[in-house]
Specification:
By secondary structure, the protein is mainly alpha-helical. Helix content is 49%, strand content 11%. The strands form five sheets. A three-stranded parallel β-sheet has the order 1-2-3. The protein has a three-stranded antiparallel β-sheet with strand order 4-5-8. Helix 10 packs across helix 12.
Length: 472
């Protein structure tokens, strides 16, 4: 492969398939994708799987399916394990030019060196013990010991302009000679990254601020190889509600865990884009088209973005309410018991009446199960505030008698016949026990919605159950 000749804006998301894709990774992918689309450029997915011990095919599949679920389509796909010969080519160039060298120091030697430097108050870095080994000695020791390849870092300052943070400067004397490969066939992150970005024509590197310390290493490698410089943007950390780094539990949660809980792509994207970026007029609800139109790094903040689960729930509830019933039924399909699906007419009515109470698709079953089977409940549930069981019993009997002669159990018809009783005996004293009798829950849709959905036969049976409870 040769570097791309066109000057088109091109960004990449480069995850390692060593675990499920989490919130931090998806936020990085989203910002890369939005900027690429805003600029009319290209978005590359690059699977960085050179860590043979930890990389797994199932995690690569998870990454791809996660991005597809969110609608973050890529224009090109690469896998580092397919590119080992390219890394070997550039490693040889560095070795030939003496910009890199083999190191044979043991872990024990390096630990002792590190401790000695610390004890003297010297910033610890590799001593270059192996830099002057002859080619003959290197060749002999490679055969016996293997050895790693270190990049010979020039001692100087490296500065770059970050689109989020402005000018950033590092003193390479504090870095030392970094290991860039475990041998010609095992390139490490910083080195493979540099080669890939050049050959794939990447123009902008957008990633989390935890990677900012890698940037001077990568710039030094680019310069040594005579490669095109890149533009960098390091995104703020995602913080918990306590304004500290997200816990290991939060970071371990994959994007598919959120899907399983019933969050939908529109809400996830809207939530993630606000973790470190803000639109004009500080709006909370944005379509994907609006995000693309407005996205720029000028509106990315330096301070950490606060991960607020309540805000995610609020956004998800908003997008659920915005869907029509057919869309919701389709989205709910994997959450609904098969038995419920048989009564399609009831399902439509239940979804319609419960849509306003759902925060997540996963809430639907617990909110709506009483429509399909009445659970046992304590009779105290039927008593309104400071009223008593006797009055509740009388009111339910009056309601039962009124409903027996009613054929049309529509919302309006049942309301017309029950409201006069409620006006005479107290709204709460009449409507509360009716609703509780129909649902067996302290929270549910209103009694007239329940009557319409349950129908005459089931509604009267449930009222009879309540009357029996209060009669005991």
């Amino acid at each position: 492969m040769t570097p791309k000749e066109d000057k088109k804006i091109k960004l990449r998301f480069a995850p390692s398939p060593t675990g499920p894709l989490n919130i931090g990774g998806v936020r990085t992918a989203l910002f890369n994708w939005l900027f690429a689309r805003h600029e009319g450029g290209l978005f590359v997915l690059r699977i960085e799987d050179t860590d043979k011990q930890r990389s797994e095919a199932r995690y690569e599949e998870d990454i791809k399916k996660s991005l597809e679920w969110l609608g973050l389509s890529w224009d090109e796909l690469y896998r580092q394990s397919d590119r080992l010969e390219r890394y070997k080519f550039y490693l040889k160039k560095l070795l030939e030019k003496k910009y890199a060298y083999y190191c044979f120091c043991s872990e024990k030697e390096l630990e002792d060196e590190y401790e000695a430097q610390l004890s003297q108050g010297i910033p610890p870095k590799y001593s270059r013990k192996c830099v002057s080994l002859s080619d003959e000695e290197v060749e002999k020791r490679i055969q016996k010991e293997g050895g790693v390849i270190r990049f010979k870092m020039l001692e100087r300052e490296i500065s770059f302009h970050d689109l989020v943070r402005g000018k950033v400067t590092f003193d390479t004397r504090l870095i030392g000679d970094v290991i860039i490969a475990k041998g010609l066939d095992e390139p490490l992150y910083n080195f493979a990254n540099v080669v890939d970005d050049f050959e794939m024509g990447i123009t902008h590197v957008v990633r989390g601020e935890e990677h900012i310390s890698n940037t001077p290493r990568q710039i030094a490698l680019q310069e040594a190889l005579g490669l095109t410089p890149l533009i960098y943007a390091h995104l703020p950390l995602i913080l918990g509600s306590n304004k500290k780094k997200l816990s290991k539990r939060d970071l371990a949660k994959s994007i598919f865990d959120y899907k399983t809980e019933g969050y939908i792509p529109e809400a996830m994207i809207n939530f993630l884009v606000l973790l470190g970026w803000h639109p004009k007029k500080d709006r909370e609800i944005l379509s994907i088209g609006e995000m693309i139109d407005e996205f720029s790094f000028e509106r990315v903040q330096k301070a950490g973005g606060i991960f607020n689960p309540e805000k995610l729930d609020w956004l998800n509830a908003h997008y659920l309410r915005s869907k029509n019933v057919d869309e919701l039924i389709k989205a709910l399909d994997v959450f609904i018991p098969e038995q419920w699906k048989k009564d399609k007419e009831r399902m439509r009515k239940v979804v319609e009446v419960e849509r306003g109470r759902m925060k997540r698709l996963g809430d639907f079953v617990s909110l709506s199960n009483f429509f399909f089977k009445l659970q046992d409940y304590d009779k105290t549930l039927l008593v309104w505030k400071k009223s008593n069981e006797k009055d509740m019993l009388e009111n339910l009997k009056l309601i039962q008698n009124a409903l027996v002669s009613l054929e049309d159990f529509s919302h309006k018809s049942s309301e017309d016949i029950i409201y006069p009783i409620a006006e005479a005996r107290g709204r709460g004293d009449v409507l509360w026990p009716l609703r509780a009798a129909l649902s067996g829950k302290s929270a549910s849709p209103g009694p007239f919605e329940l009557l319409e959905i349950l129908g005459k036969k089931e509604s009267l049976e449930r009222i009879s159950v309540a009357i029996k409870k209060l009669s005991l």
